[in-house]
Task: structure prediction
Amino acid sequence: PVSDSEGNPEFVITMVNDITENKLQQEKIMEAHNLQQAILDNAPIGIYARNKQGILLLSNKKSAEIYDLKNDTVDEKGFQSYETQEQVEECLSREAQVLETGEPLLLPEEEYVDKAGKKRFLELIKVPAGGAGGKPDFVITIVNDITENKLQKDKIMEVQNLQQAILDNAPVGIYARGINQAVSFKNKKAME
Result:
């Protein structure tokens, strides 16, 4: 209050700051964040990002599923508290390589064994991102669980090898001809 010469309140000064624009911007930021999280959480692949210090910046539900974690138990260290020390060091070493070179790193088939002993095969792509002046500040890792595909391919190969062994050791000659009558297969006995 502003007082008169006798000390009695004469009037009050009120200051008003219009925060409408700030509120609208905050709402837009929250909408963008919610949209980003919805996209991440519904992606059919795992996605997570760590900074130079190895601190987890974001992760999606599929990452937690792949690494057999509850998403709410993923802390700022990410999956480090659930991996072996060797796995942590290897992961951080690869991320440091991506940060240093600025180049993506493709790991087409990585074996991952969680602390419960469950084995998975993962395809990983580590991509540099962020940063000023072209120097990345963090690494985004895209994780695709290829366990089922790998096991199916291994089973197909096993069956094919077994079939080949049976055919090669058959006591009679076996030929396979295509539509054009060209021989597409002969076993060992047929070549004698």
Notes: The mean pLDDT is 85. The beta strands are 2-3, 9-11, 46-51, 56-59, 105-113, 119-129, 138-145, 175-177, 183-186.
